[in-house]
Specification:
- The complex is a heterodimer of chains A (247) and B (318).
- Chain A has 247 residues and is of the alpha/beta class.
- Chain A has helices at residues 44-51, 73-79, 95-105, 110-123, 139-150, 169-184, 196-199, 219-225, 231-239; strands at residues 4-15, 18-29, 33-38, 59-64, 67-68, 80-84, 157-161, 188-192, 204-209, 212-217.
- Chain A has a single domain (4-90, 139-240), classed as Rossmann fold (3-Layer(aba) Sandwich).
- A 6-stranded mixed sheet of chain A has the order 6-7-8-3-9-10. In chain A, strands 2-1-4-5 form a 4-stranded antiparallel sheet, covered by helices on one side.
- Chain A is globular.
- Helix content of chain B is 32%, strand content 27%.
- The chains are: A alpha/beta (247), B alpha/beta (318).
Chain lengths: 247, 318
């Protein structure tokens, strides 16, 4: 049996009398690309914050990379990578400085940072840009660099929160090539997206509606189950049933 | 008749070092639903700010309902409706207060123009006493649209109204736009979602400050120059994609959900059986490969490849 990188049991988060995350249970295996979908306000962000060790659940259990979300939030943060569309890199540091900075924060040794950042920069084809400020490079490159930085410390698991929002269609696909490559190298990927074609690239998908996980399976099985032509249709059928106003 | 005319418009930032719009020209007809399709950084917001007179261009000409964007700024502002990409209403005013505020700014009342917004406003009316900051994304979007419409404009500028909004709200929003169009309102709308392009009558594909193409969505896809094929992938999409690219037989191969879209080298259909054999020897048995019609996204990527200014493709393959 494959190692479980995320284990969630009856996880719940309440804000006052509002139940943002309502008794969700699921597991994510090592090396899996797990798509975490849901309409606006379905509870995705809250659930993700708990799994990243940033928010304490109201009840239920969860382990991330083997660490408990109540007791070991510090260890969780060390053993995961995180990237979102909004927060990625420091715009007023150069490409090389960002790699050094984040590598350092995650405890990668100076020697390793030096060796591997050269390798990374050449792999990304950013040799000419390595001393340029991140703010000055195109968004597509920025996102690819941000992803590489998020997994620079070789975490077991990386959380990607809408990593491709607004990115051009070619770069969006290159980004998914990188995700697939990382997964093939054993990094588990937990990803949210608004592009339903990207949901097809995931091994399994969960769809949250009104704080609950309403569907969880491979894209192929979900399409079969909902008699849908694509994931867009599956999502629409599920999200349309949402009762509570978002956020 | 053209309600928007743009000719050779150029806008740069940072003393000319960043070219946001690179000499673009297009016209929008009265009553048309016209889409500006492009990713972040393409220049969409700059274009909207120029046309709503919030920025001045470096050079070029543009007119909105016949008024000049250099000279007639106050006239243009009073006539058009504008919904910026970033939610710009007062978060600590209620839904109703925001609407009233915008009506007052334009010298009108909610009552006077209620007929125009009724269909949309009815959907958020139950929350009329809620602060705008407490609304969901979909509801904020509807309120912003009402505020942009409250002075009964004949021309609407909607900058990325559906970005970050989920599939259900996106579909609803496009239905609203079609209703507004049926009332004769001209709409210029931008979006980074390629699948939304087909909902417009005509579109301009914008990339890196340049318009790559202007036409109806149907004409754009029918102008796709090569035969396009889809290889159905099951669980193993990434490996099939790699093997297809490494086959030496394709000139492009891109993942599209559960399939891979390819064009063949020299557009030669004879190499298709060869590709199938090669993929079979790589362990991908019984692959379903069929000819397909391109989508706007296929066309967009093709045009990006044909344009030289594409930072994105430089590290296509290691």
């Amino acid at each position: 049996m494959k190692e479980k990188v995320i284990i969630c049991k009856q996880l719940t988060k309440k804000f006052g009398d509002f139940t943002a995350v309502d008794n969700i249970s699921f597991e994510v295996e090592a090396g899996e690309i797990f798509g975490f979908l849901g309409a606006n306000g379905a509870g995705k962000t809250t659930a993700m914050r708990i799994l990243c060790g940033l928010s304490r659940p109201s009840s239920g259990e969860a382990q991330v990379a083997g660490f408990d979300v109540y007791k070991n939030t510090g260890s969780i943060k060390k053993h995961i990578g995180y990237m979102s569309q909004k927060f990625s890199l420091y715009e007023n540091l150069t490409v090389a400085e960002n790699i050094r900075f984040f590598g350092g924060i995650y405890g990668v040794s100076a020697r390793e940072i030096r060796d591997r950042s050269a390798e990374l920069i050449s792999k990304l084809g950013l040799e000419k840009e390595s001393d340029k400020l991140v703010g000055s490079i195109p968004l597509g490159w920025k996102q690819k660099l941000a992803f590489s930085v998020a997994i620079f410390h070789q975490p077991k698991l990386v959380f990607l929160d809408e990593p491709t929002g607004g990115v051009d269609p070619i770069t969006r696909r290159q980004f998914w090539d990188m995700i697939s490559e990382a997964a093939a190298n054993g990094i588990t990927v937990f990803v949210t997206t608004h592009y339903m074609d990207e949901a097809e690239y995931c091994n399994r998908i969960s769809v949250m509606v009104d704080g609950k996980v309403q569907a969880l399976d491979s894209p192929a099985n979900l399409k079969k189950q909902y008699d849908a032509k694509d994931m867009d249709d599956v999502f629409y059928q599920l999200a349309r049933r949402a009762k509570r106003p978002a956020e | 008749m053209s309600v928007i005319k743009v000719k050779d418009l150029i806008k740069t930032y940072e003393k000319g070092s960043v070219v946001a719009l690179d000499k673009i020209s297009f016209e929008v007809n009265k009553g048309e639903l016209f889409g500006i399709i492009g990713p972040d950084g393409a220049g969409k917001t700059t274009l909207f700010r120029l046309l709503t007179t919030l920025l001045l261009p470096d050079s070029g000409e543009a007119s909105v309902e016949g008024f000049n964007i250099y000279k007639d700024q106050t006239v243009i502002r009073s006539r058009v409706g504008y919904m910026p990409g970033k939610f710009s209403l007062y978060q600590d005013l209620t839904v109703e207060e925001n609407l009233k505020f915008f009506a007052t700014l334009f010298g009108t009342t909610i009552e006077e123009n209620y007929a125009i917004i009724r269909d949309i406003y009815d959907q958020i009316k139950p929350f009329s006493q809620r602060r705008a900051g407490k609304l969901s994304g979909g509801m904020k979007q509807k309120l912003a649209l009402c505020c942009a419409l409250i002075h009964n404009p004949q021309l609407l500028f909607l900058d990325e109204p559906t970005t970050g909004v989920d599939v259900v709200s996106r579909r609803e929003f496009w239905q609203m736009l079609h209703q507004l169009k049926s009332k004769g309102i001209t709409i210029l709308v931008s979006t980074p979602y390629m699948d939304e392009a087909v909902r417009c009558e005509r579109i301009a594909l914008l990339q890196a400050g340049k318009i790559m193409k202007i036409d109806s969505p149907a004409n754009i896809v029918s102008a796709f120059p090569d035969m396009l094929y889809a290889i159905a992938t099951n669980a193993d999409g990434y490996r099939i994609l790699q093997d297809t690219r490494n086959s030496g037989l394709v000139s492009s191969a891109y993942a599209f959900g559960e399939s891979i879209h390819i064009t063949l080298k020299a557009n030669n259909p004879d190499s298709l059986p060869e590709l199938r054999d090669l993929l079979t020897t790589r362990g991908h048995a019984n692959l379903e490969i069929r000819e397909i019609h391109p989508s706007i996204e296929d066309s967009f990527m093709r045009l990006m490849k044909d344009t030289d200014k594409i930072p994105a493709t430089q590290n296509q393959q290691q």
